[in-house]
Amino acid sequence: MIAILDYGSGNLRSAQRAFELTGHEVRITSDPTIALAADGLVVPGVGAFGACMKQLEDIDGARIIAERVQSQKSLLGICVGMQILFTSGTEKGSHPGVGILEGEISELHAPVLPHIGWNTVKAPQNSKLFSGIEEESFYFVHSYGAQKTNRDALVTTTEYGADFIAAVEYGHVSATQFHPEKSGKAGASLIANWVKTL
Amino acid sequence: MLAKRIIPCLDVAGGRVVKGVNFENLRDAGDPVELAKLYGDAGADELTFLDISASVEDRSTTLDMVARTADQVFIPLTVGGGIREVKDVDQLLRAGADKVSINTAAINKPRLINEISDRFGNQVLVLSVDARRAKTPSGFEVTTHGGRKSAGIDALTWVEEGISRGVGEILLNSMDADGTGSGYDIELIAAVRAISSVPVIASGGAGALGDFARALDAGADALLAASVFHFGTFTIAQVKSELASHGYSIRL
Lengths: 198, 252
Known about the structure:
The complex is a heterodimer.
Chain A: E1 2-5, H1 12-20, E2 26-29, H2 32-37, E3 40-43, H3 49-58, H4 61-70, E4 74-78, H5 80-83, E5 86-89, E6 95-96, E7 101-107, E8 115-120, E9 137-142, E10 144-146, E11 154-160, E12 162-170, E13 173-176, H6 184-196
Parallel strand pairs in A: 1-2, 1-3, 3-4, 4-13, 5-7
Antiparallel strand pairs in A: 5-6, 7-10, 8-9, 11-12, 12-13
Chain B: E1 5-13, E2 16-17, H1 32-41, E3 47-51, H2 56-72, E4 77-80, H3 86-95, E5 99-102, H4 104-108, H5 111-120, E6 125-133, E7 140-144, E8 149-154, H6 155-165, E9 169-174, H7 186-195, E10 200-203, H8 210-217, E11 222-225, H9 227-230, H10 236-245
Parallel strand pairs in B: 1-3, 1-11, 3-4, 4-5, 5-6, 6-9, 9-10, 10-11
Antiparallel strand pairs in B: 1-2, 6-7, 7-8
Helix pairs in contact in B: 1-2, 2-3
């Protein structure tokens, strides 16, 4: 069973349908018991970093995430759901994140923001998430991102003005700045790749 | 490289596609879900539904239509038309829309832009601007009622205000070019591109294959078109292939 963490942020319906295409049962939940028991936990998120963190705290989400990481159970952060896994964010003031990944989420260095649309990625050869879809494009919509994180993490980058982190694979923690659930066939392949690791 | 986006726009009312759509292999030309799937498979980078429902009853079917589309089509979906308050946005996003576009409601109440953006982030909010040539400082003014009435605002001033209040994208409709098939309004696109810090989607006037590259040359980040796709004048693949031949990055 795959759980999608419902903390009032993000378009959960699309995410649920996209993950159901893998043939797995998908439950939208804010219940810690279900979120902790799931084979994989998806952490979505839209809006501002600080607002998302506050909503996450309302369901004790940081503890759920930390417990899953500690017990080596997989999770996948998407968009702001990826950003909040980092140490901190600077959108509308400085905010602490969950801190599973090192690094700061700051405004992208580009003249036109938000970064909206389909962009290519540079994935490392041993990436599981991007296996077979290294040349594909994915759908991004964001103004903030991470430039660097833990040295031992597998980092996939995208260029918009400058390079930023498009995806991270770090132990049982995976995260994408783009929306795989909105990235057509390529996104469906990435979701299937992640589900295979569970 | 970030690809230039091609966005088909479907006019819908009462949960059905209105205005003729002329495709082979289409069982029901009025079914927005079937058309959305078809466009998604054909390479559309996003889809836009413009709800032109006149009645409240017809409008209530929109949410169900959005939900059914989002269940089956895994590319971004923007919905415009009839959004008057934050609650309308909340309902559309919950139904599965990724972005909403607002037009007249923002002219009547600019504060609505701040309210939506503060609640959901600027990335969900597209400001749709119906512009035409006029004797204003920039040479373009904002119109309402499908271009029939002047809103009494300079178009560039309005774009700047929209961005400062928190819109994440500009959908720029040329009322002079719309329906002519004589090409996008290059001057209007260039004028807005010069002052916009957010992406600009050009709309109105596409008729020939060369029109698309010319609009990108003028600075558009994305191109919206309706009739040329609905009537099968060009496929999305043909447009993308033409853009690629001009050196533009597109998603295959």
